[in-house]
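Quiz preparation item.
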């Protein structure tokens, strides 16, 4: 029998990743008459929703919008059970789409790409898996996800811990039973905000180690309102089209009030209304919160007051009150997160000034005190946006290494293509709005642009496309200029790589908004792709 490493599967397009991006790519490429395979490190589809199985994991954009729109029958037929559906239901949805479009026959699971090399003579990409399997394509599309490489914290002794350790982004498929256990939770981002209430409801004792307090807004989750579902379904195409006209791709009411100069009673009433509605659009009434420090501070203080009103112990409440600007990071959505700190079995340890000294076999030491625990939950996020691409040894023209090219931060033309890496596309790559939006429409827009581009090349018998250095530089300068507007890029966040030791600080997503970005992409496609060289 031939060794795995001797077999090369040849297709038109190799897709890396079988999350929502990779799955839709297969649908579109097939429809365009291309042969395509997706290679996927996991043993199932769904990406984010395959890996992040921690208790409480759910979407932060309402399910009616956090869903595909390319298949109108599907969006009419599918019924979400909750306003913000939980991970098992989103994964079920991903599996349903895979069945409905018969995708699995073209997905190679348990296939982690180690390297991808461009061959000049044949204008093809050869991808090699960790176990030696290979696949070759005329095009390679990286649908590897913005939040798919778990960040393991750089804490002394973490490997010495003798009990089980769970990263929220690598959660086991079987239920983790916390009953009777003492649990440490490290991190207080969205993953911890969602999981803590569940863990605390089961465990004997939970100790939370918080470095930076986060703004969290109540999700007010519950069964999906049937009236709202009917309203969407009566005009789904209209809702989707209007959502695309918003900066974040989320359909909602947006206002233009200047918070800084508003009457305090008026702005507090507006924030209160949004707080009662719940959701990511908490700040959507105002046009200056991310531009003006005074406006930002007013909104921030509103949330701090909410935290102080909920958390009974004033010292704990103060530690939980975020000191950074609001909206600098993606807001968290929660269900009884702050209330959880009123439980007798939950303790909060502030590690901002005194970081974790080390982890021992039996617990976590802070400021000379050992906090003994039986289990560690590591909710420390991701090496975002560039992690998955830099993990693969990607070699372009002249064996140029993408990891080396991006050592001082990424650059890209439109977040879609990189000079010296012909026939390679990235979905929601750095330099596109991606993580600043409802990601499903953003993913669909990229997939459609990429497959249209490949179709354009087929018609003209082009075999090679490459972003020019000049176009990439111009776009990247624009991305960085856009990031200078307002306060967002001043925050230490994973948008700038601040969560990863040694990562160069660069604002990676495009802050110019979804409509402007879509227009730019459409203009480029409509004008025979200026900024790209074809052969
Ligand atoms: P992913 O879903 O990350 O899929 C990428 C796939 O590529 C993964 O399956 C991975 O295994 C595979 N892969 C990566 N590297 C390799 C390799 N070397 N070899 C082979 N396979 C590889 N966004 C929203 O807009 N709304 C939300 O409510 C929301 N909630 C989220 C909740 C959590 C817990 C997280 C972590 C993210 C959330 N996001 C949300 C962002 C989410 O990542 C996107 O919405 C979307 O699911 C991304 O899809 P994707 O296909 O681009 O990437
Ligand atoms: P995150 O937002 O990056 O939060 C990680 C947490 O771990 C932060 O509190 C961070 O502190 C802390 N941390 C990191 N390294 C540490 C260390 N060495 N020592 C101590 N603490 C450390 O990650 P996340 O919570 O997984 O969320 C990431 C993104 O995924 C979100 O912003 C969102 O886009 C998406 N997400 C969405 C949902 C949802 O609601 N649908 C749920 C989960 C995730 P610092 O802040 O100080 O770095």
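Solution:
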């Amino acid at each position: 029998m031939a060794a795995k490493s001797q077999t090369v599967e040849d297709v038109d397009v190799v897709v890396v990743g079988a999350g929502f991006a990779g799955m839709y790519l297969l649908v579109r490429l097939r429809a365009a008459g291309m042969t395509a395979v997706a290679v996927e490190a996991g043993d199932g589809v769904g990406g984010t929703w395959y890996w992040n199985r921690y208790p409480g994991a759910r979407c932060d954009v309402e399910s009616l919008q956090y869903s595909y729109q390319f298949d109108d029958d599907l969006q009419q037929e599918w019924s979400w059970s909750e306003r913000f559906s939980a991970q098992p239901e989103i994964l079920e949805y991903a599996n349903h789409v895979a069945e409905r479009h018969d995708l699995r026959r073209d997905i190679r699971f348990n296939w982690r790409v180690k390297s991808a090399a461009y061959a000049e003579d044949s204008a093809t990409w050869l991808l090699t898996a960790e176990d030696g399997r290979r696949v070759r394509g005329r095009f390679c599309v990286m649908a590897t996800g913005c939040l798919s490489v778990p960040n393991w914290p750089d804490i002394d002794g973490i490997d010495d811990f003798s009990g089980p350790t769970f990263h929220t982004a690598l959660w086991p498929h079987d239920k983790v039973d916390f009953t009777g256990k003492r649990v440490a939770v490290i991190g207080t981002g969205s993953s911890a905000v969602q999981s803590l209430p569940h863990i605390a409801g089961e465990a004997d004792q939970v100790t939370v180690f918080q470095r930076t307090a986060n703004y969290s807004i109540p999700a007010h989750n519950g069964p999906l309102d049937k009236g709202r579902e009917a309203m969407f379904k009566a005009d789904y195409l209209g809702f989707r089209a209007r959502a695309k006209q918003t900066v974040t791709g989320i359909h909602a009411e947006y206002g233009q009030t200047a918070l800084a100069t508003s009457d305090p009673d008026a702005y507090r009433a507006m924030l209160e209304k949004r707080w009662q509605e719940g959701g990511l659009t908490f700040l959507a009434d105002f046009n200056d919160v991310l531009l003006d420090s005074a406006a930002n501070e007013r909104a921030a203080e509103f949330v701090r007051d909410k935290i102080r009103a909920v958390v009974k112990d004033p010292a704990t409440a103060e530690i939980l009150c975020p000191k950074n600007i609001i909206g600098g990071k993606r807001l968290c959505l929660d269900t009884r997160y702050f209330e959880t700190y009123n439980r007798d079995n939950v303790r909060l340890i502030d590690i901002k000034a005194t970081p974790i000294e080390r982890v021992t076999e039996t617990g976590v030491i802070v400021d000379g005190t050992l906090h003994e625990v039986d289990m560690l939950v590591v909710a420390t996020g991701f090496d975002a946006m560039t992690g998955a691409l830099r993990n693969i040894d990607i070699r372009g023209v002249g064996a140029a290494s993408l990891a080396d090219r991006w050592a001082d931060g990424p650059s890209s033309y439109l977040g879609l293509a990189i000079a010296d890496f012909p026939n390679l596309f990235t979905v929601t790559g750095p330099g596109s709005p991606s993580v600043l939006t409802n990601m499903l429409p953003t993913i669909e827009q990229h997939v459609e642009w990429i497959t249209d581009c490949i179709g354009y090349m087929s018609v003209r018998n082009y075999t090679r496309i490459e972003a020019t250095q000049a176009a990439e530089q111009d776009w990247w300068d624009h991305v960085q200029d856009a990031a200078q507007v307002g306060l967002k890029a001043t925050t230490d966040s994973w948008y700038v790589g601040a969560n990863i030791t040694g990562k160069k600080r660069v604002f990676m997503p495009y802050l110019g908004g979804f409509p402007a970005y879509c227009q730019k992409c459409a203009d480029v496609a409509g004008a025979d792709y200026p900024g790209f060289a074809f052969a």
